[in-house]
Amino acid sequence: MTGERIPNEREERRVIEVGLLGSVTVTVDGAPVALSGTLEKALLARLSLSPGQVVSRGRLIDDLWGENPPGNAIGSLQSLVYRLRKALGPAASSICRTDHGYKLDVPEDWVDAARFSLLSDSSRPAQGSGESSRATVLRQALELWRGPALAGLDSVPFVLPRRTALEAARLCALEERFEADLAAGAGAELVAELEGLVTEHPFDEKLWGHLMLAHYRSGSQAAALRCYERVRVLLSDELGLPPSPVLAALERAILTQEPSLLTGEATAGRSPRREMVGHPPTPGSWSRSSPPIWRGERGCGAMRRRRWSRPSSAMTSC
Q1: Is 90 helix (H, G, I), strand (E, B) or coil?
Q2: Which of 111, 118, 186, 249 is the most exposed place for a label (fewest CB within 10 A)?
Q3: Beta partners for 101?
Q4: What SS3 class is residue 311?
Q5: Whole-angstrom distance, CA of residue 218 vs CA of residue 133
């Protein structure tokens, strides 16, 4: 029989919450569920990356086993689904089978990675209308992270590219949070966190620019200029490149002690053209290429536009 499964009137929907932004975790009605096998966790994670969407059997086999699938790959996948359903107990029916594959039938905000994306999206309309509120929303999104995404599943073929994408989205949200903090007038309180981030991401000039401005606002013009020299030497030695024009413009503004650098207003509303001819750059003006994140798109905006849609699909059983 074909058609969407209709729950029994007596059946109570269980609340499943899946964590991907760290080790893979799952709770049912608030109670932790133990998943013993790596492939069980990987299957749940792969379905959770597209909550409410059907993932084909072929895609699941490729993502879980790569170039070395088991002899009876379909049978192995069915066995894996059975074990995952058994572990989920009363929430087993949330793993649904369709004509073409399987899906995790839960609302998108029951998965932390989707919730992170939704919160990050919700901060964007607030840009320019209340930077402290925007920073608060971005902090809420970033607090969902418990460690490296999909931790403990490095041997599974799909994990490393997905982790790279998720980590790039996290860095993008971090950069936007610093932009909002600086636009709201922050400075010294950001220095320690930014110092750690430029160590982790040494070629990210946007982070270096934020650090320069934070040092300057903390009252240390010398520290801000030393930051510029650090990144200038790094880029020259490692890449054979000079700092970007935007970063160089910020250094000139710090050298001349441009008054607007001390105000939040100086970090919003200026055009890239003005910055290129010597005006203090705005956080939003930094250009930064990011790896493909969702459906071949690029950059922070593309990460934000991730669609957690639910295509309709004929159901054969759940």
Answers
A1: helix
A2: 118
A3: 56
A4: coil
A5: 22
pLDDT tens profile 170-217: 999 999 999 999 988 899 999 999 999 999 999 999 999 999 999 999
Our CA angle for 97, 103, 107, nearest 5°, is 130
| Statement: residue 1 has pLDDT above 80 | no
Going by C-alpha positions, the residue among 52, 41, 49 that lies closest to residue 80 is: 41
Q: Do the beta carbons of residue 252 and residue 278 sit within 8 Å? A: yes
d(CA 105, CA 181): 37
Domain 1-185+293-318 sits in CATH at 1.10.10.10
Residue positions counted in the chain:
318
Radius of gyration of the chain (CA): 23
Alpha-carbon span 121 to 107, nearest angstrom = 17
**Alpha carbon 35 to its chain's center:** 24
Q: What is the mean pLDDT of residues 37-51?
A: 96
How many CB atoms are located within 10 Å of the residue 199 CB? 9
Average pLDDT estimate for 43-47: 98
**Taking the domains of the chain in order of start, what are their residue ranges?**
1-185+293-318, 187-262
The Cβ of residue 224 has, within 10 Å, a number of other Cβ atoms equal to 23
Give the model's confidence band at 227: pLDDT under 50 very low, under 70 low, under 90 confident, else very high.
very high
Two structure tokens written together for 92:
């087993």
Judged by average pLDDT, the poorest of 94-103, 160-169, 282-291 is 282-291
Please compute the mean of the pLDDT values over residues 63-90 and round it to a whole number.
95
Residue 15: other Cβ atoms inside 10 A: 14
What's the pLDDT band for 2 if we cut at 50, 70, 90?
A: very low
Right CATH for 187-262 from 3.40.50.1240, 3.40.50.720, 1.25.40.10, 3.40.50.300: 1.25.40.10
Q: For residues 152 and 117, give the distance between their C-alpha atoms in angstroms, rounded to a whole number.
A: 22
